[in-house]
Amino acid sequence: MNLTFRQLKVFEAVARHLNFTNAAKELHLSQPAVSMQIKQLEEQTNTPLIEKLGKKLYLTEVGLEMQDYARSTMQQLVDLEETIAQMKSMKRGHLKLAVASTANHFVIRLLARFAKIYPKISISLDVTNRISLLDLLEKNECDLVIMGRPPEGHNLQSAPFLENPLVVVSHPHHYLADREQVSLKEIASEGFVVREQGSGTRSAAERFFTEHDLEFKAKMDMSNNRAIKHAAEEGLGLAIVSLHTLELELKAKTLKIVNAEGFPIYRHWYVVQREGKRLSPIAMVFNDYIMQEADKLMLDFDLPLFKNL
Amino acid sequence: MNLTFRQLKVFEAVARHLNFTNAAKELHLSQPAVSMQIKQLEEQTNTPLIEKLGKKLYLTEVGLEMQDYARSTMQQLVDLEETIAQMKSMKRGHLKLAVASTANHFVIRLLARFAKIYPKISISLDVTNRISLLDLLEKNECDLVIMGRPPEGHNLQSAPFLENPLVVVSHPHHYLADREQVSLKEIASEGFVVREQGSGTRSAAERFFTEHDLEFKAKMDMSNNRAIKHAAEEGLGLAIVSLHTLELELKAKTLKIVNAEGFPIYRHWYVVQREGKRLSPIAMVFNDYIMQEADKLMLDFDLPLFKNL
DNA sequence: ATATACCATAAGTTATTCCTTATGGTAACA
DNA sequence: TGTTACCATAAGGAATAACTTATGGTATAT
User: What structural domains and CATH numbers belong to chain A?
Assistant: First the structure.
């Protein structure tokens, strides 16, 4: 059986009018055109759908089934169109994001604002480590990723959208904590609690010290940013972390920013997507949104401003 | 938007395989043929449905919607085919009957047997008077009607399928009740309880007496067969009724058949349909069933047999 | 760098779809 | 009985749908 939508459409009109001529008028067709479509449909099903008794038309039992089917199929088509239209106009849709755990805090705040503008959009947010992020992109399991600078050679497209100031933090009673200015040399003489090898923050710090011909002393390394901050809070050493992860600790005064020479180091947050990926409308809008608005939005956050921010 | 089933079918295959070439093989098509169908579908929706990242294919969000739609539509089509097939093979369907109230009793017994043979068929039975029966036929609101001889000139097709013996009944203690033979003259001298003017039974009786040059004395008339029998039970007079309506009263011995000369009068039960009506498969089968089987089935009923039956 | 797997595109052909006009037949109705 | 309303059928033509083969491009893998 190989029906066509055309047949169904014509049949539906006939079933409604119970009159070929009127159905033809509605469809802007000649009457024989309608006859033919119905005839074809009856040939397809190999059973009469309409019976003519005297002047009047009646649907057969199968005809009634067919009418149900035609209506439901056509309604579903309308629904589909509606759904697609909504998706296009971002009244509906799903945004799949993934962020580096370090970025989690501020991204959620960005997302909260974004979600208010597009209330019908559902969002899923995966918070995970760099390796997993790349994996998600690789498998096309998310639209966009927010992370530090992505590695080369993964067929990725990335764009920096926000400065990411790395600052030195210490226990609030650390002897360097209240100094107006701490020279780089002094800082370098301290031991640091750092992320594992390969972490973006760690390599940025290492590069920074190397560029200034200083050694970077990693006293302890941990795989989790929260753990690093906690270690610093406990006085295990200084730490270099993204300012954006510090809102809570600064407010609670469990950590202090050390006024270290040359800091903050400015790195960037990137929006990353797979090369060649055609973003969904909503992902595209989100991308534009953070590219344009992230700077401004960060101003609302309760974070210290550095002169060149 | 003007999709085709073909597009949906091809799309479904591609969405399942996530591979054009394999989908093409499954459909016994060349790969470009598949490409074209997908392309057309994307043009219809004006949005990408499939995205290619590197070597792998992925469905876009709209693509996923489309996949749902395609599957559900195709499933519905399968369901429709199944339904039609069942209707054709009478595993499903609906039989709309209407019977004269006089025929109700025995028709229900016929129907009970018929329903056992076609257990999946639903049946509706309208029990009503002659006028309404003709009206139902006129409006094509039932497949078949069972009644006495239908009037001419209504564009009806009818066929007798069963003899309808009309007998004279009386109160069991009526003075004629136990007589071995009652002459027609004696009968004619009695007063009768009869149906209203226009009733088939009444005109048959009248004609019968007229043919024998006797007068037919209608003492009382009623519009309902049950009421007539009741009147006879109460000794209000003799009655002429169809033997087929008497099973209960004979068993209960509340009425007796009078051995009247010339009785039973043989009339017939007819199956009636509208001229030109194309019966549904199940109606046709029912028609055949009663034409062939009604005689035999009546033998199982607890009714007296007359010599020439 | 080359081979491989895979999809896109182009060009051309065939078949089918879909519609039109013209005409015929039938039931209802006056 | 003629008229009217309505559907069926026939014939013909325009559009297009649906494939095919051939070829090109691109990402991946070796």
Answer: 5-88 (1.10.10.10), 94-162+268-308 (3.40.190.10), 164-267 (3.40.190.10)
